[in-house]
Amino acid sequence: MIQLEDLTKVYRMGKVEVRALYGVDLTIDDGELVAIMGPSGSGKTTLMNIVGCLDVPTSGRYLLDGTDVSRLSDNRLAKIRSRRIGFVFQSFNLVARTTAIRNVELPLVYAGVRARRNPARLALEQVGLGDRQKHLPNELSGGQQQRVAIARALINDPAILLADEPTGNLDTASSAEILKLLGALNDTGRTVVVITHEEEVARFAKRVVRLRDGRIVSDQVQRNRTEVIA
User: Fold this and answer.
1) What is the C-alpha separation between 64 and 52, in angstroms, rounded?
2) Residue 7, beta-bridge partner list
3) Inside any domain, residue 13
4) Which of 79, 115, 104, 193 is nearest to 155 (CA)?
5) Is residue 69 a contact partner of residue 75, using CB atoms and an 8 Å limit?
6) If you write DSSP's letter for every residue of 159-176 in order, what string do you get?
7) What is the pLDDT of residues 175-199, one digit of tens each?
8) CATH number, domain at 205?
9) How far apart are CA 214 and CA 205, in angstroms?
10) Cα(203)–Cα(107) distance, rounded to whole angstroms?
11) Nearest to 189 by CA among 160, 209, 163, 164
């Protein structure tokens, strides 16, 4: 599904060039559960932005389902993001004065879909929040807010779920709940890619890719993974 070939990314700040990725080669197959790890400045967020079609590489190729998306127009990239990829972020990014169900509906609002309520309700039920539809974000725990964000990411039934530090703002118990949910979504056949710097989070993945200074330094299948963090 995801194939990166000799991928590089260079940011230009005036006359200064900052190289974020150096010739990255990476393949992620349908239905994998992968953690991409690395310290700050390792290039993991840059890599996620490219995989999520939020950014384009400076050189190299990015093939998604066999299509080279590296040089697509902004409009084509936006269509791929809305139809093929769901995003979950550390900060939840919920609209504070809007109920859970309306937050989940937002991608459908932007897409001009009229029949939104039933898909949003089903998405909330899928993440175990069918009874919290009318609650505002400040009436929900951190773990529940992240579940709403995951439901919003699922509303268009994406094949790929990209989670950037999804447990970064959560306590241990809530983190375990979110990882268990991501694992369950992967069990249904959905590809899940988690960006993290936490070893405890990476241990639940079936495969761990480690980055350092813009390069992949290891890529291993985990034989003794844990279902959730302790």
Assistant:
1) 10
2) 24
3) no
4) 104
5) no
6) SEEEEESTTTTS-HHHHH
7) 999 999 999 999 999 999 999 998 8
8) 3.40.50.300
9) 21
10) 31
11) 160
Whether 138 contacts 145, CB under 8 Å: no
Domain ranges, residue 210: 30-53+73-221
Contact 82, 107 (CB under 8 A): yes
pLDDT in tens, 153-176: 999 999 999 999 999 999 999 999
DSSP state of 185: H
* Number of structural domains the chain divides into: 1
A 10 A CB-CB count for 98 gives 14
Query: Quick one: how far is CA 86 from the chain centroid?
Result: 6
Rounded distance between C-alpha atoms, residue 118 and residue 183, angstroms: 25
Non-local (6+) Cβ contacts of 158 within 8 A are: 83, 84, 85, 86, 190
For residues 123 and 154, the answer to whether their CB atoms sit within 8 Å is yes
The mean per-residue pLDDT over the stretch 135-146 comes to: 96
CA angle, residues 47, 162, 173, in degrees to nearest 5: 120
> What tokens does 192 get?
């899940």
Q: Edge to edge, what strands does the sheet with 160-164 contain? A: 85-89, 160-164, 191-196, 33-37, 207-212, 215-221
- Residue 137 is given by DSSP the state G
